[in-house]
């Protein structure tokens, strides 16, 4: 067991206090004390279900697929997808330029298939030029989900840029079964199929991965 070592600390005008640390060979990006990204292990996973589950058996991608990651962070999701599916094109959107620099400098986010856009997620989606086979929504301000993730127009715009068999995955922190039900009902207003996955029976402040299909 090794002590946690701080590699970088700064205060971002967008996200507040940011820290990169390392323990037992795994790096972690925290924003205002909340874990935003972690590095991958030898299996190309994190050991944290709410990231690793984005590549579960229901997701099918090939070399012609295109992926959109909203909330790039340190690049955990793009790296997992690249390790599993190869050099599929991934467009990663992150509003905070400091986070982008951290992703490159501390998490090695330099894969040739990953295009990085330093931009507001809602604006990017509204003006997107491509259709996507997988859209990953993982947009947080510290421990709070971004307000656009409860905005009707945001999901209407996401739906417009999904391919015919496209999937939209949302990482949602839930505080109760009631909270989960309300958010699922909200998403069912836009998508025909809405499924969720959690790895615990205790739904008090845990992550649910929600898959939506038109």
TrEMBL record:
Q: Which PANTHER family does the record cross-reference, listed alphabetically?
A: SPERMIDINE SYNTHASE, SPERMIDINE/SPERMINE SYNTHASE
Q: Name one GO molecular function term.
A: spermidine synthase activity
Its ancestry begins with: Bacteria, Candidatus Woykeibacteriota
User: Domain PABS spans what residues?
Assistant: 1-214
Q: Which Pfam families match?
A: Spermine_synth (PF01564)
Q: Which family does it belong to?
A: Belongs to the spermidine/spermine synthase family.
Protein name, as recorded: PABS domain-containing protein
Question: What is the scientific name of the source organism?
Answer: Candidatus Woykebacteria bacterium RBG_16_39_9b
**Which regions span the lipid bilayer?**
none
């Amino acid at each position: 067991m090794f002590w946690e070592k701080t590699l970088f600390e700064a205060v971002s005008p967008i996200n507040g206090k940011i820290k990169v640390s390392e323990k037992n060979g795994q790096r972690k990006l925290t924003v205002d004390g909340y874990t935003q990204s972690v590095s991958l292990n030898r299996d190309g996973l994190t050991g944290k279900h709410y990231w690793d589950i984005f590549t579960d058996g229901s997701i099918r991608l090939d070399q012609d697929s295109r992926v959109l990651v909203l909330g790039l962070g340190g690049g955990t999701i793009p790296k997992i997808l690249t390790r599993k599916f190869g050099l599929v094109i991934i467009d990663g959107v992150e509003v905070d330029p400091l986070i982008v620099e951290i992703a490159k400098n501390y998490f090695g986010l330099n894969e040739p298939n990953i295009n990085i856009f330093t931009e507001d997620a809602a604006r990017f989606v509204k003006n997107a030029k491509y259709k996507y086979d997988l859209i990953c929504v993982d947009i947080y301000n510290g421990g709070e989900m971004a307000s656009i993730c409860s905005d009707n127009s945001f999901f209407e715009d996401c739906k417009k840029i999904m391919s015919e068999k496209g999937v939209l995955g949302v990482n949602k922190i839930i505080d109760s079964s009631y909270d989960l039900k309300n958010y699922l009902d909200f998403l069912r207003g836009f998508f025909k199929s809405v499924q969720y996955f959690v790895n615990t029976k205790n739904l008090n402040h845990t992550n649910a991965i929600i898959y939506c299909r038109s």
